[in-house]
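Now for a typical sample entry:
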Amino acid sequence: MTATTPTSDRDTATPGGTPALVVVAHGSRDPRALSTVRALLDRVRLLRPTLPVHLGHIELNEPLLPDTLAALGGEEAVLVPLLLGRGHHVKRDIPDMAAASPARTRVAAPLGPHPLLVDALHARLREAGWPTHPAPDHAVVLASAGSRDPESRADTSRTAALLAARLGVPVVPAYASAATPTVPEAVRALTVRGYRRVAVASCFTAPGRFATQCAAAAPWLASAPLGAHPSMARLLLHRYDRALGKGGESNADEGARGTARPATPNAALASRPHPAHA
């Protein structure tokens, strides 16, 4: 998958125009989610004051994406999913909503995998108490929502590999739904291997049921959702720029960088000596 997916055969590069950035959030029943997303958009506006920035939700919260696009009329827009990997929403729901709108649109890649996402994950772990110099018995479970789509799971695994390279410890991807291992299963697997300090890195954009559920399974510390971290705002703008052809790399290229360290549960554990022998 490249970083941009045209959703209309109309050209989105009107000379002299500035296409709007439409951030596409999933939506949540947790009231903290909407306020978190709005804070993130405010940070994006501070970084690029002249850029029109709008919000649209796939479900559960207003404004819904079709309403946001309808309000734009025939204007140009780049839709950047506030989602952390490929899956049904990125591949079908968002493009279908865009194609049905009067706006001239294209859809950017999801936010992960990317080094800026890892920056935010690392920062949230440090805020939660992750040490500067982790010991040999430290490890991390990367908790994400989960998907039946194998490309979504591959994106999570690449993000875990990038985070493992950053931290220098095993990072095992785990899921709140639709995929395995679950977070408790990943924690148990690491504990059996002798990792006594297992942290849960919250790979969620905002608070919600899944984030709360995964954090509750942490035997040691759990990081906060990514929220309005500055790297998330920069990443949204990077995806916007990339969708307009202003340089950058494809989603696959970004995810492949620094991923020599395996991130699947068995491989991640096998790639590092047992703590007792370290």
Summary: Residues 150-167 form the longest helix (18 residues). The radius of gyration is 19 Å. Strands lie at 4-6, 20-25, 53-57, 76-81, 104-108, 138-144, 171-175, 197-202.
